[in-house]
Specification:
The chain has nine helices and five strands; from the N terminus they run βαααβαβαααβαβα. The protein has a five-stranded parallel beta sheet with strand order 1-2-3-4-5, sandwiched between helices.
Length: 227
């Protein structure tokens, strides 16, 4: 199961899903609640709904498959970590996963979401490859109510990291301006998984699967979960 990021779409995980499909896996990329709809719809969603939808999808997949893996980008990575902490999946890949937002955003968002609920994204998606950035679909505005939910979710996931024993690949783009690359090392150090791998992608920003390192990352993800 491939999970996209906040205000994104399943498209940003498509290349990873295709790589898994070519390796013989069934690849499934759902749109999480509030996505593939409108920014206003996303603003009404709680983080528990993102997690609940993914949990329900895993339960459905369990009825058809012996093993279920999850790969998540950014907010989707938080969902993947939460599922791993519940021992709901057999392996996980997370990339560009933000454990906390850069200051002072966490302090300002609770007020800003009322004063400026839907600010426009100034430079588009955080992708180094200009062609990939130009064609990348996502909401043109960011619902700050959803960002506030993301902050709540980050707090929950940070506390759960020590319960994770699932095999996990933790990756991050070196040029990420959305999530601090150091968060990936914090995740790697905090989990209790016996089999784990940490990877920094030197030529990518936040949305690694569609950036310069996307093909290399997809190969590594398939190899890791196939081992």
């Amino acid at each position: 199961m491939c999970l996209h990021g906040l205000s994104g779409t399943p498209y940003e995980m498509r290349s990873l899903g295709e790589a898994f499909a070519q390796a013989g896996y069934r690849a499934f990329g759902p749109a999480l609640p509030g996505h593939n709809e409108t920014p206003q719809a996303l603003a009404r969603v709680k983080y528990t709904e993102w997690l609940g939808a993914a949990r329900d999808a895993v339960e459905r997949l369990r009825k058809q498959h012996d093993r279920v893996f999850v790969a998540g980008l950014s907010m989707g990575g938080l969902v993947a970590l939460a599922l791993s902490a519940e021992a709901a999946v057999d392996g996980a890949v997370v990339v560009g996963t933000p454990l906390r937002l850069r200051q002072p955003l966490p302090l300002l968002i609770p007020v800003l979401k009322y004063l400026l609920p839907f600010p426009r994204k100034a430079t588009g998606s955080d992708i180094r490859d200009p062609a990939a950035r130009a064609r990348h679909p996502s909401y043109e505005v960011m619902p700050l109510a959803a960002v506030h939910q993301l902050i709540h979710f980050q707090n929950v996931v940070r506390r759960a990291l020590g319960r994770i024993e699932t095999p996990i690949l933790v990756a991050h783009g070196a040029h990420d301006r959305t999530a601090d690359p150091s968060d990936s090392k914090e995740i790697f150090d905090a989990v209790r998984s016996e089999r784990r791998k940490h990877r920094i992608l030197e030529n990518s920003a936040h949305v690694v699967p569609v950036d310069y390192d996307g093909p290399e990352f997809a190969r590594e993800a398939v190899e890791f979960l196939s081992a």
